[in-house]
Amino acid sequence: MRNHTTIAALILVTTLAGCNRSPGALEGTWKADGLVPMTITFRPGETEAMGVIEKVDYATSGNVIKVTYKDGMMKGSAIAFTIVNPNTASNPMYTLRRIR
Asked: CA 63 → CA 1, 20, 49, 87, distances in Å?
């Protein structure tokens, strides 16, 4: 029984380790080039775009940061950004360039 408890605890810790409120390398303000040019700010636990602030969770795996929306129009959806370098991130819809 103790082995099952230990295994369950390890699975929980491993799962939660990748999810948090910190945007990591995305933290800051970025200009999105693509179909809908806009400015996006990533802050701990939230994003802001076009004057709308939405609560999010961040999950990091290597150089990919997944942003999962917890409310608003995007609730339940996720967007993954690949960090190309400290000032560039991308996904299939657009490229982000760091402003600040």
From this structure: 37, 15, 23, 13
